[in-house]
Each structure stands twice: as structure tokens, then as C-alpha cells.
Specification:
The protein is mainly alpha-helical. Helices cover about 45% and strands about 10% of the residues. The mean pLDDT is about 80.
Length: about 130
Amino acid sequence: MARGRSVADPMDALLDSLARVGSLVDDAAPEVAKSLARTIRQQVAAGTDPDGKPWPKTKEGGQALQDAAKNLRVVNVGATVFARLTQHVARHNNGTARGGIQRQILPASGVPAAYARAIKAALDRQFLEAKNG
């Protein structure tokens, strides 16, 4: 046994690791917010809805809402992550849209698969960091 170390040191290390894992969700929330923001921006750049379905093209045949991502705000407040849109892309139309064309940016309910993968990746990184100290 090394000088100055006791039998309790491995147990202390384990307990410290478990304490870090206990605060995992709170600690991971900022990284989850960044990961979700990246995912949503990629989705908008690709011109798809949260489930990956392509948006309808513009009348001219181009990609719609190309600047929508600059109006995206994703932040955490404690362990809760909020995503919202500002400016014109934030208009709520109760499921209807002028001309019948809808281009959904944020999910109305549930967690799309791409969002779940982004959240899991951030939590996995945070877990490994907490576990390994």
C-alpha cells in the first residue's frame, strides 16, 4: 500500500464517482441544449421536419425557411431544456397554414429520434466524465 493511502481510498473514490453521477442530469443540461441546437440547425439546413420528412419546396422550387435557424434559441433552466423560435417562423397557426403548406421546425409533441440521439450522446459523454472523474 502506498504511503499516506488507506484501505478506504478506493471506496472514497467510488462514493465521489456516484455523487457526480447523481447530479448527471443537472450537469448535462447545458451540453444537451448545445447538442439539441446543433441537431435542430442541421435539420433546418437540410429542409426537413423534426422526423426527417422533407419540407415542401417554395413556389420557385427552392428550399424554404433558409434563415429559420438564426431565430432558434435553445437554453436550459436547471435540468429543463427549452427550444423556441422567434421572428416570423414562430407564428402559430393551429395546424393550418396559408396555402395549406406547412413546414414544421420544432415538434408539437414527443421526442423525435434525432433529438433523442442528441440527448443520449450528451448524457453519455457527461456520464463517462462523471464516472471517470
